[in-house]
Amino acid sequence: MKNSLLKDDTDRVDGIDKVTGKAKYFAEYQLPGITYGVLVPSTITKGTITGIDSKAAERAPGVLAVVSHLNRPEVKGYEASNTKPVPNGTLKIFYTDKIAFNGQPVAMVVADTYERAVYAAALVKVSYNKEIHATDFDENISKAKPPRNPSSAFYVRGEAEAYKNSAVTIEQEYILPTETHNPMELHGMLAHWDTENRVTVYAKTQGVKATQNTISSTFMIPMENVQVNSEFVGGGFGMALRTWPVEIAVVMAAKKVKRPVKLVITRDQMFTLVGHRPHAWQKIGLGADQDGVLKGITHHAIGQTSSYEDFTENIVNMTKFMYKSPNVNTSYKILPLDVGTPIWMRGPGEATGAFALESAMDEMAHALKMDPIAFRLKNYAETDPEKNRPFSSKYVDEAYKLGADKLGWSKRKNEPRQNKEGQWLVGYGMSTGVFSAGRGKATVRGVWYADGRLLLQSASSDIGPGTGTGMVQVAHGVLGVPVNKITFELGDSSLPPAPSQGGSATMSTVGSAVHDACTALKNNLAELAANSGMSVTDPIAEILKKNNLPSIEVTKESSPGNDQSKYSMYSFSIHFVEVKVHELTGVVKVSKIVSVGDSGKIVSPKTARSQMVGGAVGGIGMALTEESVIDHRYGKFINNNFADYHVPVNADVPDIDVIFINKPDPYTNPMGAKGMGEIALIGFSAAVANAVFNATGKRIRTLPITPDKILS
Amino acid sequence: MINFQYIRTTTSKAAVDSLGKDKTAKFIAGGTNLVDLMKRGVTAPEKLIDINNVPLKQIELKGNILHIGALATNAAVAEHAVVKQRFPLLSQALNAGASAQLRNMATVGGNMMQRTRCGYFYDITMPCNKREPGTGCGAKEGYNRMHAIFGTSEACIAVHPSDMCIALAALDAQVVIMNPKGERKISFVDFHRLPGATPEKDNNLQANEMIIRVEIPLNTLAENSYYLKVRDRASYAFALVSVAAGLELKSNRIIKVRLAMGGVAHKPWRLTEAEAFLTGKDATEVNFKLASEIALKGSKSFGQNNFKLKLAPNSIIEALNQAKSKA
Ligand SMILES: Cc1cc2nc3c(=O)[nH]c(=O)nc-3n(C[C@H](O)[C@H](O)[C@H](O)COP(=O)(O)OP(=O)(O)OC[C@H]3O[C@@H](n4cnc5c(N)ncnc54)[C@H](O)[C@@H]3O)c2cc1C
């Protein structure tokens, strides 16, 4: 790919729309005859509903319906067999009298104004038969079980638990509490049945096609009868990667009242109804010889799930290939608890796993009296030791050096507590992050008009990273059309198909399709030019005029080739931080950050940098502030609001230096790009924990690192 | 719908008069606390008396006493030149609270009257003696990381969340209150209450009374004062522990000292014994440490807030260190 792809000054194509309020989010849509839904949440954590007294609510002014399992309209997919078409384990909303978690919707009140719906919801009286619930991870840990898919459960290379036989060993447990995604925008949906058999929804989703598919299969209506609109999304971080039962409830309620129904859930409901990063326990064993050569790595993990669904993620995967130990074994189990089903949260299981592995690597380096970077380089995997094949590209060694120089790593002393500024202990830490550089299949329609404008369309999403901005730059790179003449349309299920925005794969997947569509347009134009005795360098207006065409158009599906099976494709990140820890108060401040991205060619420098910055901010949250607390006596979240659930604020975030290796990967896709959304966060929390150790000599293995833990 | 009456008053007398006639009436000032509590169903006043047009926004030095009207906003007080210069402790405490947007709306009276942030108080499905006397205390054996270590009772271990009030307690402020009979004045440290058997009462303001203003006498502490707020994130978080410290030093001798703590009790916690100990002594680490030990006498923790038994004395030392080094 030519360097012309790099155009540092390209702003977000939708930046002005976003800051001026022109960009419209699902909750801002109004339809004639609109009504408002408000949920009645379960106040018990486990048991059965014995009665719903909705008489007062139904009589309240403006109320159209109180939808519950007692009176829901027919949902054909719910009645069909257990596994098809509604995925196994999905909580069928308003389906039975069973309560599986605290806050589970028992009913939805629909009224002509939001305020009336809120009031009427408070009038609904629900009685329950309470059963003993289990929400406490530690108390129930013995009930952990291997996930249904056994391939993710166990892995052995060489000998299991071999670390124990080494000269130097580390064996430690690491705990991550439940975290809640908490994007600024609340979840919900606006749904309207245009006919008996056709529904339009305005959604908050990371995948319009996925939402379309779920609604289509749940209500058993054809895909083309479901129109999903989601042009702008106010943050997702993974929580909008599935169509949640509450969304189905909205579509159901709209069917019942035969009017548009809008539901916007409340902040406390964001903790229970739309997933979370699951609580996880991990144990790492590392064994090395005196020279720092790793002989064995063992990584066991247990992640929490719900009682009704197996949620799994890749907590132990990085351990299998990051370092070239001859002996590696991992295990992964899940622990069902009486909570809602978790969902991937940015950097998903990999971020959880990297916290443990990269903390343990730091602990081992310290035990060996080695510099943590030197120790990692000693065990550097040039090729993928798990799959025994080359990496498509990997410049982690170079990234270590760049990041170390930028941070001033030389100031770090290997012994902790050596740097002090007044009452502040200063420490330095680093860590590695890695995430699969996946690519899927997508289709893009491109129309190139005689006046030079280029329109590109695909049912992709933009939860914030700047999808359109990136795509426009890919197209510009291929065709040379000025970026301000290119429009990329997304967030509409009627557009050509694209996968959901998740797993850092949008640039690779949709970008490739944009690339291929633009290449096809270029070839078509060249052909037209040749046929009419002109040259490709002639203006498009003239070529099309000569051919009597207003525009040229292609629709191109693009899939990964078989390089995916020949190479291991990963994006890497290296995080460096300086922290200051107050000796008396235990306050931890991250005072410097350098994040290095080894993610192939950088297609859109501004938005790429923003990804890394956002990841670092999320990483500060994971490391220092974020924790969703349940009072296990009630099974209920107790800090379920923005005052008590602490996402980092500006004052917690120092200037963030972002460095990109920016070398194209020869195999991932035509742009040579690799994904970035996840690596931006993966490993970050370990860098902070390692820096805190370097500052204080105190190793904190339970996140978040709050002042009480420093002082204890 | 939960209907309520909304009226606006332009004089404090009218405001107090309209209170008197209605037991469930409430003043609304900035609304930053009251509206949240109404939305959450914690409180449901039948009448809201908007007092924002009552002319009580003054911030002025009258002789040796600074008068601050009950409706002066937190932002206006924090940024006022006289406050910054003569009472930097108050300015620092205010700026350590909430967010810029909230401080623009929040008033002095509302800040004093804000209710605890205890999660059990806010969640109407949970037990809470403060919200619903007799239902029990959810926090005592629950999530009590933020809770009190001083002056707790069987019924309640909540803390008063204000930062401003900690500084005012340290600065020997007085509260001027109006009721149908006239005005009365009480010392700031006597305004808020300990929970005892009646945690539903946060303070000693009577149902027919209104806060008119706060008065702070000029002092000799301005040069050496510091408000330390220890919290889970750098801004927009309530205090785990906070300390308002003011010193008058001659060479290194402590002529006068004022200390109050936040995040540790149901009311701003003035450290009079520690003050008495330090007065006349040298401002040394050793004396600060001894004072912090005296201050912790009678403390009691409830599990998740055990760390406060260490954080509190450490914070006293740090605040005194900072106050001392200001000179
Ligand atoms: C997210 C968040 C974070 C916050 N963080 C902090 C923090 O870190 N530190 C901190 O100190 N505070 C914090 N606050 C609280 C904030 O300081 C208070 O909400 C504010 O001071 C209340 O003032 P107000 O004028 O808005 O009161 P209102 O909400 O209008 O009223 C509160 C109460 O005071 C009564 N009242 C008001 N004026 C008078 C009067 N003159 N006489 C008698 N009664 C009166 C009202 O009837 C009502 O009961 C935070 C608030 C929020 C929402």
Automatic annotation (TrEMBL), chain A:
Residues 20-132 form the Aldehyde oxidase/xanthine dehydrogenase a/b hammerhead domain. One of its GO terms (molecular function) is iron ion binding. Pfam families: Ald_Xan_dh_C, MoCoBD_1, MoCoBD_2. Gene3D superfamilies: Aldehyde oxidase/xanthine dehydrogenase, a/b hammerhead (3.90.1170.50), Aldehyde oxidase/xanthine dehydrogenase, molybdopterin binding domain (3.30.365.10). Coiled coil: none annotated. This is Xanthine dehydrogenase YagR molybdenum-binding subunit. It comes from Pedobacter metabolipauper. The lineage of its organism: Bacteria, Pseudomonadati, Bacteroidota, Sphingobacteriia, Sphingobacteriales.
From TrEMBL, chain B:
The keyword Flavoprotein applies. InterPro entries: CO_DH_flav_C (IPR005107), CO_DH_flav_C_dom_sf (IPR036683), Diverse_Substr_Oxidored (IPR051312), FAD-bd_PCMH (IPR016166), FAD-bd_PCMH-like_sf (IPR036318), FAD-bd_PCMH_sub1 (IPR016167), FAD-bd_PCMH_sub2 (IPR016169), Mopterin_DH_FAD-bd (IPR002346). One of its GO terms (molecular function) is FAD binding. SMART domains: CO_deh_flav_C. It comes from the Bacteria. Pfam families: CO_deh_flav_C, FAD_binding_5. Keywords: FAD, Flavoprotein. SUPFAM superfamilies: CO dehydrogenase flavoprotein C-terminal domain-like (SSF55447), FAD-binding/transporter-associated domain-like (SSF56176). Residues 1-221 form the FAD-binding PCMH-type domain. PANTHER family: OXIDOREDUCTASE, XANTHINE DEHYDROGENASE SUBUNIT C-RELATED. This is Xanthine dehydrogenase YagS FAD-binding subunit.
